[in-house]
Amino acid sequence: MSRFLLALVLAALCRAQNTPALERVLNFEAGPTGDAPTGWGLNNASVSLDNDVVHGGKWAVRIERSPGAGGDFGGISKMIPVDFAGHAIEMRGFLRCQDVTEHMGMWLRLDGEGNSPLGFDSIQRLLVKGTTEWKEYAIKVPASNEGRRLYFGVFVAGSGKVWADDLQLLVDGKPVWEAPKMELPKTVIDSDHEFDGGSRISVSSLSELQIDNLAMLGKVWGFVKYHHPLITSGQRHWDYELFRIVPAILAVPDRAAANAAINKWAAGVGEIAPCTRCARLEQESLQLRPELAWIDDKARLGDNLAATLRKIYANRPVAGTQFYLTKTPGVGNPSFQHELPYAGMRFPDSGFQMLALFRYWNIIEYWFPNRDIIGENWDDVLKQTLPKIVLAKDRDTYQLEMMALIARIHDSHANLWSSLALRPPVGACQLPVNLRFVENQAVVTGYSAEAMENTSGLKVGDVIADLDGVPVAKLVQTWTPYYAASNEPTRLRDIARSMTRGECGAAKLRVFRGTQEVTLQSDRVPLGSLKFSSSHDRPGETYQRLSSEVAYIKMSSIKNVDIPRYIDSAAGTKGLIIDIRNYPSDFVVFTLGQLLVTEKTEFVRFTSGDLANPGAFHWGPPLALNPQKPHYAGKVVILVDEVSQSNAEYTTMAFRSATGATVIGSTTAGADGNVSQIPLPGGLSTMISGIGVFYPDKRPTQRVGIVPDIEVKPTIAGILAGRDELLEAAIAEILKK
């Protein structure tokens, strides 16, 4: 494993953080966030804070990897922006280890623009392994005026335990926060301030002609943004260039005049030198082709605009660099940089609201790996949503219209996460019950607050028919446009979680309790007093021996370090039930998956975007599980349902690749792949699934989800009887002859 690859992959999995108390993050005295050390990213290891084995202060970090853990290494990582000057950057820290099979250490990497590596160092060369006591280590890279981000971390390769404590980041021997500040190079975003106070575009109505012309402007604006060399190199403030052309497009009398105005604007961006090494679209690995036939549609664009767009496309940068995004190293999902959130914009502002639509629409058009399975004509969506978003009269209406737009890509990762408080139903209180759609009906499955079983008036198994006089079916129909979900079971899952929210006080309900219809009142209580469960697994310990023949493991509380012990304990059973009706608490794809296979077994492959060919996505090679010991030789049965999402689905894909494995349950959430965050005007934030996730034979998982081998769904009768019908089916599958 090369030292460069080590840093590349670990850096890809950490997030930029600007922690004021960086010293306390480095010495781990900031304490835990959940079970993890505050301020650090985690990768392929079980990581926790230790207050027994420390070098100084109260806490040290402990990193553990068991034999057969996923990947070659794991650890903790962090990134800080390079806003300081100096000659040398040094990382120092105290490490100790126990039973490390390969090596452990610290690493430090300085990156420039576009994540280009400028310097790297690691103690990997010392090959520290086995068991050692506390010792201070140091690594160093030259500082550079070209540096933009500093990545660093602690890792262990192979298996074993590593402790780290009292880390330091020094610039010329002084703590990094005491180093002279360096003014980062300015971009055009820093120098063009014409519209900082507002777009100066005010629209009270839109004609069909204006909608059609603005929609075409939005498409051209996005095409030029990602193809024109002067924009991809960051020489124009492209958001503000939109505001400069919109008034002319609103004023034109017909389509031909709009085309002429757009052409004059696009051609006026700057002269394009003919390419000497021209970009090409690689065909061999191509999974999804850019949808660019429209740039040659002379009947719609006119000869001149079509020629301008074709010239831009033919001379797009071969290097594949983009000012407004990079690809996350080692993963490949887009990282949208230089996309300003304009958090201080004043509403209404038709220009900034239009910008939000155009930015999002074009990100989906060029960088969403699942664009081809949205299920709607994306051009039509642009025209349909344009007047709703541009004409929104206040902040709340704008957010709801953006929420409805985002829901139309049908990606469970893609909610308007910054604005969920506005998603209907709204209110500060909620009934203290857990609901789930079972047999297409809203069923009470439990209680979300202690001591509410006898005071809420609702019983497990009750079917809610009306809420405050409105049929549940009508509520679902009304709210559905605001719920981003890859498929219908996931949408109903999310609606059920918030369905009884509203104003504090009594809610009137009509319910069916068996064959009896009951009308009752139940008090909504403050949300802060409620505890909702997002898992459907079996209560109790992570590992359970259900009988002499059946073992059970649930992923919601799994830890990598415990897996070999669980598999040893399950030895000799006929079958192992792996419950993934939850979200895994640790990344166990390889740690556990490699104990289930007897030979190298491919289980997944990815697609990622092409910076030189926006809108194109290419296949990557399959990933595989390699057999490790202790091997589990019995049957493997995996339980899934609508709460199994993202990492849960990825984990299921790995485990089901074991010979004879059976998946029981119902369709999962259908949203997998590393997510990419998208800032939007008004300080809003959304995400997309940033890479495509497929089976090795190229069958899709997005929207489809994990399709079970044996479909089993809970029933109302089963809930009334307190049964876990999926678990029962799994036991029966293991014990059948």
From TrEMBL:
Gene3D superfamilies: 2-enoyl-CoA Hydratase, Chain A, domain 1, 2.30.42.10, 3.30.750.44, Galactose-binding domain-like. Residues 513-713 form the Tail specific protease domain. Keywords: Signal. Residues 1-21 form the signal peptide. Transmembrane segments: none annotated. One of its GO terms (molecular function) is endopeptidase activity. It holds the Pfam family Peptidase_S41. GO terms for cellular component: outer membrane-bounded periplasmic space. One of its GO terms (biological process) is proteolysis. It comes from the Bacteria. PANTHER family: CARBOXY-TERMINAL PROCESSING PROTEASE CTPA, TAIL-SPECIFIC PROTEASE. This is Peptidase S41. It comes from Solibacter usitatus (strain Ellin6076). The lineage of its organism: Bacteria, Pseudomonadati, Acidobacteriota, Terriglobia, Bryobacterales.
